[in-house]
Design brief:
Elements: H1 5-17, E1 23-24, H2 25-31, H3 41-57, E2 62-66, E3 73-77, H4 79-82, H5 91-104, H6 107-122, H7 141-144, H8 147-159, E4 162-167, E5 176-188, E6 191-198, E7 203-208, E8 212-219, H9 233-241, E9 248-255, H10 260-265, E10 267-271, E11 279-286, H11 289-297, E12 303-307, H12 309-322
Antiparallel strand pairs: 1-3, 2-3, 4-5, 4-8, 5-6, 6-7, 9-11, 9-12, 10-11
Helix pairs in contact: 11-12
Length: 334
């Protein structure tokens, strides 16, 4: 039975997360279920290129570097950059995390991850010894939509087919049937969005997956729909959600070779030592001060805010709280 696109992408993420090596494209083709069925090297290359772009659109930090024992380029996902920083959760958010944890503990997910790891070992890929104890990050079902909707949308995008589904623009609105030429799926701040051309409205539209009702149905011939060249799916979602509105800029020092997520967000100003440690200063556009403060605090002493002072104080308060010390130097009662 052919491997679905969703399963292939999950296998690829597990593969690239489970080893610190940079894996060549050929090693990935041999190791990851879903690629071995490619009719030729060229077909595999096209599929792998689409999958790499898909991972980047989903916000997954795919790194490239020289593969061990080879002059070829290799790929991996840096676990430090992939994992979430420390965050503060209210009661509602904590409940959502609990739902996600129960989803990961389901027999289907456990079986899929363990099978993938066995295949990697059989192919000679070095798997981190502690990886089996750490589940791959998952997303609460309420924010990403149903598994069936996600699977059918990704399959339609891969096949180049249009889709039809029922969607509502707000939780209190009635469902309306939409016909869409899908270009891709993007995740932003825990929510998932379909981006494409709305046929009925003859315009580019985004649809939150949690507001799409089953079933999603693919229609029309294959290879009839493709993302137009030059289209930036994440920029479209940023604009629609307001996440692209930059409210200020921060200057942050980061340790050499660390804090890769901050490096992706900003641009390097200069190389500089701080406290006798080598590193670089970054200029980072800020859309949410609270979010960037949590992100920086999650990197501990590998990231230091240089300006503005208000952000520096916010990060320091979060670090004091995490250490069990209140802002006046006393002990936090938990």
């Amino acid at each position: 039975m052919a491997i679905s696109k969703v399963e292939r992408l999950m296998n690829l993420v597990i593969c690239l997360l489970s080893t610190r090596q940079f894996l060549t494209a050929e090693k990935i083709r041999e190791s990851v279920a879903g690629y071995s069925d490619s009719a030729s090297h060229e077909a595999f290359s096209r599929m792998f290129e689409r999958d790499k772009n898909e991972l980047r659109d989903l916000g997954i930090p795919l790194e490239t570097g020289q593969a061990k024992g080879s002059s070829a380029e290799g790929y991996r996902i840096n676990r430090t950059a992939y994992e979430l920083p420390e965050v503060d959760l209210d009661a509602t958010e904590a409940a959502a995390v609990a739902v996600a944890a129960r989803l990961w503990g389901s027999p289907e997910m456990v079986s899929a991850s363990q099978t993938a790891l066995l295949k990697l070992r059989a192919a000679g890929v070095q798997v981190d010894s502690d990886f089996e104890a750490v589940p791959v990050s998952t997303v609460p079902a309420r924010t990403r939509g149903s598994e069936d909707s996600m699977r059918k949308l990704l399959e339609a995008i891969d096949a180049g087919r249009a889709v039809t589904f029922r969607h509502r623009s707000a939780p209190t609105e009635e469902f309306a049937t939409r016909t869409v030429q899908p270009w891709g799926v993007v995740t932003l701040r825990g929510r998932w969005y379909l981006v494409g051309h709305d046929v009925d409205r003859d315009a580019t539209r985004t649809f939150r997956l949690s507001r799409i009702a089953d079933p999603v149905q693919a229609i029309g011939p294959e290879n009839a729909v493709r993302k137009p060249p030059g289209i930036d799916l994440r920029a479209i979602v940023d604009k629609v959600t307001g996440a692209g509105s930059v409210t200020g800029r921060a200057v942050v020092w980061v340790t050499a070779g660390r804090a890769l997520e901050l490096r992706r967000l900003g641009t390097m100003r200069e190389s500089r030592e701080f406290g006798g440690r080598p590193g670089e200063t970054l200029e980072i556009p800020v859309r949410s001060w609270e979010w960037i403060a949590r992100l920086i605090a999650g990197h501990g002493d590998d990231a230091v805010v240089l300006e503005p002072e208000s952000l520096r104080s916010s990060v320091q308060d979060k670090l004091r709280f995490a250490a069990g010390v209140d802002v006046d130097g006393g002990e936090v009662v938990r």
